[in-house]
Design goal:
- The complex is a heterodimer of chains A (455) and B (293).
- Chain A is of the alpha/beta class and 455 residues long.
- Chain A has 17 helices and 12 strands.
- In chain A, the strands form 4 sheets. In chain A, strands 3, 6, 11 and 12 form a 4-stranded mixed β-sheet that branches. A 4-stranded mixed β-sheet of chain A has the order 8-9-7-10.
- The relative contact order of chain A is 0.17.
- By secondary structure, chain B is mainly α.
- Chain B has a domain of 184 residues: Orthogonal Bundle (MetI-like fold), CATH 1.10.3720.
- The two termini of chain B are 33 Å apart.
- The chains are: A alpha/beta (455), B mainly alpha (293).
- The interface between A and B is large, with 41 and 39 residues.
Chain lengths: 455, 293
């Protein structure tokens, strides 16, 4: 009896131990490309999020496997909120994925400055960007010291969405989609916005002329629209996005920020922060006439209950830059065991037909290739394709890449700037009271990060 | 079974847990102690910098802002929260009709996850269409901007924390049921009124539970994170930059794992010290039925 009991107990204990120690190898995607496995098959991993607009990665990867029998693609999907932290953990444990792009806060420059990206120049002989319709401007974003470090597959311009019904009701002509129309200026937009604003004590009747999220809400880039830079020009050319200083305290920059705060406070044409608490989309609800934002906002248009148009962002005083570009460059980590196979994947995704499929599968994410522009322009029901083409072409021509993609430490910077400028945008302080101190604090942070990243 | 066999089985059965503890708790904890003395950005190898991270905290403005925010929250939410859970426990300990319903209703909110609760309260505090300002408007008050106002954001989160006093209430309720009815009856016969009975009988007997609740609430309030992460992102103007949220930001947004580890260790030390002080001084206020140990 005792022996039996003992046997049973030992078995149970062993089972517990073994059960506790073993882990299913398929449950964690850590192992990046494995060594040439059975029949010389190479496995590469693509790191992405599980949101619906990234579904194309999975679907097109299985297409890729059909034509590339010797390459197996493992998709590592994580929730958006864990994107950065999981990727860092993988890098820390020396098991980076082969391919990814910037989705979280840590962009291209973050990993570039930490020396984690593979120089793709050796593979560029087999890659003809011009033939694939990828504009030179977009390729250049990911070149550092003449070397190519990522290939743009998607490019979001910023644009203006407008509610045609509200324009018709107010009897105002629609804003132009062409970037060549010289009459379309900031002042004209403000004039229209005033006419389109309805002030009322009844919240259901309130309507605003304009919402402004030109650089996706990051205040550090906004002054660029008016022709004033917050960071020295060499930050983005030779310093890997590590700014030597900032000019927030500059009177022009300070004025620009006040001008934007005044949209809400003085001109009263833009909704205050409380208007959209809880993530409600006031534009799609028909409460805002013009919304300046990233092109990702277009993906909601098919659900809008009104007629919608897209327009150029008006001239704001910078002859070269009128909108912010968010170009998703795909890169290969240095730790990749199969860089050739990984590059094959990127090349495959850059093909016209795959880019067109990507537009479809992602629910309207824009391709970086001009060859897929027709497909993109015709994707959104009820919006004039010519308008979309104008806005994309003009947007690329007059676009400056988003700072979040180009500057390491952008998450930390954003937190500081957002908090310091908060009193300006809620009206408790003037910009001139806040920016000198912000400049000084940001300089301290930049110096700290420069020291850390230049090691 | 003799003692040595029992010992053997003991170790055999706790073995899986010990392995788990060593590999997934103790090892990471000790590693974070090491990292707290290094400059570590996750991607590049850690560089030993001695006490630099700890020294940096002294001159880090945001660190002090996070300490201030956390203390503000703890100093208001802990005493008021304890008071409320005790009051509700006393009320629901009475023989009132619908007692069970009220107990469940009071306890229910504490079963909702922090994230879901945060999302719900974002709507309650919505200045234009939220319940809070709607309720205030009924009595003719124009409500504040709540989470969007630097001065109101913290009070908002404190008010929200009272929503889950039901958890503490249940524990107090259990303690109240343990107060012998005979003592209260005897006191009543001797002419003691409600307050006298409360202070001289009920409070002493439930005081160990009170101590437990106090310590747990303090620890909990020092570790507030979810509300800040989901509702306010530490703002506006740093008003809700809680210590643990700032720690998280340093680790996963700013890539300063070394600094974040140092912050974590400092928090641990402070919590341990505080608990020690409370335990030591509590002897004077706490009544243990079985005598003091």
């Amino acid at each position: 009896m005792i022996t039996k009991t003992r046997l049973a107990m030992t078995t149970l204990a062993l089972a517990l131990v073994l059960g506790g120690c073993s882990s299913s190898p398929s449950s964690n995607g850590e192992a990046s490309g494995t060594e040439n496995g059975k029949n010389g098959v190479q496995e590469i991993s693509v790191y992405t999020t599980n949101s619906p607009d990234r579904l194309w990665v999975k679907k097109l990867s299985s297409e890729f496997e059909k034509t590339h029998k010797n390459i197996k693609v493992k998709i590592i999907e994580v929730p958006f909120d864990n994107f950065d932290s999981k990727l860092q953990t993988m890098l820390a444990s020396n098991t980076p994925p082969d391919i990814t792009t910037h989705i979280g806060w840590a962009g291209f420059s973050e990993y570039m400055s930490k020396d984690q990206l593979l120089d793709l120049s050796p593979y560029m002989d087999s890659f003809n960007a011009a033939e694939l319709g990828i504009p030179e401007e977009l390729m250049k974003i990911f070149q550092v010291n003449g070397k190519q470090y990522a290939i743009p597959l998607q490019a979001f311009v910023s644009l203006m969405l407008y509610n045609k019904d509200l324009f018709d009701k107010a009897g105002i002509p629609y804003p132009p989609s062409s970037y060549d129309d010289a009459t379309w200026t900031w002042d004209k937009m403000l004039e229209d916005a005033k006419k389109l604003t309805v002030v009322s004590n009844d919240i259901t009747k309130v309507q605003y002329g304009l919402s402004w999220a030109w650089s996706g809400g990051g205040r550090e880039q906004d002054p660029q629209y008016f022709g004033h830079d917050v960071f020295p020009a060499d930050t983005f050319t030779s310093n890997k996005g590590l700014a030597a200083e900032n000019f927030f305290g500059n009177p022009d920059v300070t004025n620009d920020l006040q001008k934007l705060a005044d949209l809400v406070l003085k001109d009263k044409v833009a909704p205050p922060a409380e208007f959209s608490v809880g993530g409600s989309d006031a534009f799609l609800a028909g409460k805002i006439a013009m919304a300046v934002d990233g092109a990702w906002r277009l993906s909601g248009v098919n659900d809008a209950g009104f007629r919608m148009g897209v327009a150029a962002i008006p001239m704001g005083g910078n002859s070269k830059v009128r909108d912010v570009l968010w170009t998703d460059g795909y890169w290969i980590f240095k730790g990749s065991k199969h860089p050739e196979a990984a590059f094959e994947w990127i090349k495959f995704m850059a093909q016209k037909e795959n880019q067109e499929q990507m537009i479809e599968l992602s629910g309207g994410s824009p391709s970086a290739s001009q060859l897929a522009l027709d497909k993109y322009a015709n994707f959104f029901k009820g919006v004039d394709p010519t308008e979309i083409k104008n806005v994309v072409n003009g947007g690329i021509q007059y676009g400056a890449e988003g700072y979040a993609h180009l500057m390491p430490g952008s998450g930390e910077m954003h937190t500081l700037i957002d908090n310091e400028l908060n009193p300006v945008f809620n009206g408790s302080k003037k910009a001139s009271q806040v920016t000198p101190e912000l400049q000084q604090k940001l300089n301290t942070m930049l110096e700290k990060n420069r020291k850390r990243d230049s090691k | 079974m003799n003692a040595s066999k029992e010992t053997k089985y003991f170790y055999l059965f706790v073995f899986p847990w010990i392995v788990g503890f060593l590999a997934f708790s103790l090892y990471p904890i000790l590693t974070s102690l090491y990292y707290s003395f290094t400059d570590y950005n996750v991607v590049n190898p850690a560089k030993f910098v001695g006490l630099k991270n700890y020294k940096d905290m002294i001159s880090d403005e945001l660190f002090w802002k996070s300490v201030k925010a956390t203390l503000y929250y703890a100093l208001v939410s802990v005493p008021v929260g304890l008071f409320l859970s005790l009051v509700f426990a006393l009320l629901l300990n009475m023989k009132v009709p619908g007692k069970r319903f009220f107990r469940v209703a009071m306890y229910l909110p504490s079963m909702i996850s922090g994230a879901a609760m945060s999302l719900l309260w974002v709507w309650i505090f919505n200045p234009q269409i939220g319940l809070a300002n709607y309720a205030l408007s009924l009595v003719g008050i124009k409500g504040p901007l709540w989470l969007l106002d630097e001065h109101w954001a913290m009070p908002s989160l404190i008010i929200m924390s009272f929503w889950s006093v039901g958890g503490g209430m249940v524990i107090f309720l259990a303690a109240l049921q343990g107060v012998p009815a005979s003592l209260r009856e005897a006191a009543t016969l001797d002419g003691a009124n409600f307050w006298r009975r409360f202070w001289s009988i009920t409070m002493p007997i439930i005081s160990p539970v009170f101590l437990f609740q106090l310590i747990m609430s303090i620890i909990g309030s020092f570790q507030v994170f979810t509300q800040s992460f989901i509702m306010t992102h530490g703002g506006p103007h740093y008003a809700t930059l809680f210590y643990v949220y700032y720690l998280y930001q340093n680790a996963f947004v700013n890539f300063n794992l070394g600094y974040a580890s140092a912050m974590a260790w400092l928090l641990l030390i402070v919590i341990m010290l505080l608990t020690y002080v409370i335990m030591r001084t509590s002897n004077r206020f706490i009544y243990y039925e079985g005598g003091r140990k």
